[in-house]
Every structure is written in C-alpha cells, then in structure tokens.
Amino acid sequence: MNDNEEIVMGNGRKNNLISQAQQNNPIPQEYIDSEFVIPTEIISLASKGIYYIKGQNQVKIKYMTADAEDILYSPELINSGKVLDVILKEGIVDSNNLDPDDMLSGDRNQLLLELRKTGLGDDYKPGKMKCPSCKEEHAPTINLNDFTIKSASEDCDEKGWHEVILPVTKKNIKFRFMTGHDEKAISKSKKTIPGKSKIKYDKLVTERYLRQIMEIDGITDKIYIKKFIGIMPLKDSAFLREYIKRIEPGLNTMVTLECDKCGHVYEHDIVLNPIKLFYPDAEIDE
C-alpha cells in the first residue's frame, strides 16, 4: 500500500482491514483501544487538612512504575537534589490543587513512604544498630507497615499556629509546622564561621526556628525573633524542638526490635534515610 491509497481509503475499508488483522493476530481485548490502568490509592493525610486553605485531607497517589526509575536514576535530578520532589509530584494524581511544596513536611514524608511501598515493597533496612542490652550490633529489617500515623491535633489557632511556653525564659512562643518550601530553603542555608571564611556549617536548627517561630510574647517582628533565637538557652531550644516533634502530624517511626544476638526486645525510633529508602542496594558508609 502506498501513501495515496491510504489517503483515499474510506473508514469502512480501514476498519475491515484492522478487524482482519486482529483475527490473524489475536490481541487480548483489554489491550485494544484502551489504556493501561495504573493502580492508585487514596491516602488520608496525617494533617487532616486543618492546615490547608481548602481543608484537603486526602490525596490520591499512583503506584510507582518504570517511569519512576527514570526519575530515581536521572543524573541531573540526583545532582540537583530534586529527585524526591519529582517523585512526589509525579506520584500524586489528585490533590485538589494542593501543591506538594505547600504540604506540611509530615504529610510529604507520609506520601513518600506510601509511594516507596508501592514500588519497592514494605521491607526497609535502616542499617546497623547497637543493642542496648548486649551492646552488640545487629542489622534489623523493618516492615514499613509497622509505622503508624500521628494525626494532627486541632488545638492550633485559625492561622495554623501552635502555642507553648518555654521552661527557662518563660517566653510564650507561637509556631507553625514546616512545609516543602521551608525544606528547600533550609537545604540551601549555609553560614561562614567568623574568622574562618573557608569553613561552612549548616544552620539547620536556627533556620528552622526562624521559619517556624511566628510570634514571641505577641511580637511578630522577624528581626526580634532572629535575635531571640540567637540567644535562646539550650534547654529552651531542646524543649521546643522535642515539643514540636511530639505534636507534629506525620509518621510515628517508633518500632519494636529484637536483637538477633541476645534476643533482647526494645523500642527504637527509626530514622528514615532517603537514600536507603529509595536506593536500598546502594552502598552507604555506616
């Protein structure tokens, strides 16, 4: 058949030829004139939507596919540190226009974990740990389904701020939870040590506070807040950090472990390493 014959061919003749071809080379009906259906799940967010303008409390995600591998092993995305952001955005198929960058960190981590489970399974190896009883190292395998969801409490104000009084300075602090935008900004935060211009260190704690603390004793001025953060007693800082961690919605990563050396059973808070989570076969120095 040449190009001219194709152009003048009527629809009826074309359909007959297609039908004849299908009879000669049978194709399963589900693959004819239909798309492959990717499984999806609806996830109820730990935040319960109370921190979002539209109150979005559920998100639909799709199972990770071969396309996700292209993302995970893209040199450009790896070098830019954007791999997990892209995995999250590509994995969400319905969020009612809630941008993943606007989501609380706890919701983002919850969705990333659910996406990981759809593509790489439920088993996670966090690395070597020391048994508190026999002091020997062991390397447990964690079932990610053992993690529970820590849902949001509803004792925040209309702005989504929470309130607490620090134990040492007795300052009344109002704070909010971190979002994807905050995480990205903090990852770029560096400070030069005075007198040693070539040495840099991450300002992870103080930068988090600067973004999270919205008010101190009724004062919202960021210059004042920054000055207070710089002189905040360590006891106040530790208290605030633990308090935020305790009430922040997200994953409860405390699990029960058993030492394979002595049989001791103990509770341990698992730190999720993004590399171990999405690249389980990668070699990482302990």
Write the layout of secondary structure elements.
Blueprint (H helix, E strand, L loop, with lengths): L2 H6 L2 H14 L15 E5 L13 E5 L3 H7 L2 H6 L2 H9 E3 L10 H16 L2 E2 L4 E2 L6 E2 L3 E2 L4 E3 L11 E4 L6 E4 L4 H8 L2 E4 L2 E7 L1 H9 E4 L5 H10 L2 H14 L2 E3 L1 E5 L6 E5 L4 H5 L8
Antiparallel strand pairs: 1-2, 2-3, 4-7, 5-6, 8-14, 9-10, 10-13, 11-12, 15-16
Helix pairs in contact: 5-6
List keywords for this structure.
286 residues; 36% helix; alpha+beta; 2 domains; disordered N terminus; globular
Q: How many discrete domains?
A: 2
- Main β-sheet: number of strands, strand sense, barrel status? 3 strands, antiparallel
Number of strands: 16
Q: Structural class given helices, strands, pairing?
A: alpha+beta
Classify the beta-strand content into a percent band.
15-25%
List low-confidence stretches: 1-12
Shape assignment: globular
Radius of gyration computed on alpha carbons: 26 Å
Q: Please, what is the average pLDDT?
A: 85
Order of adjacent strands in the largest pleated sheet: 1-2-3
Oligomer: single chain
* Helix share bin: 25-40%
H/I helix tally: 11
End-to-end separation: 65 Å
- Spell the H/E element sequence: HHEEHHHEHEEEEEEEHEEHEHHEEEH
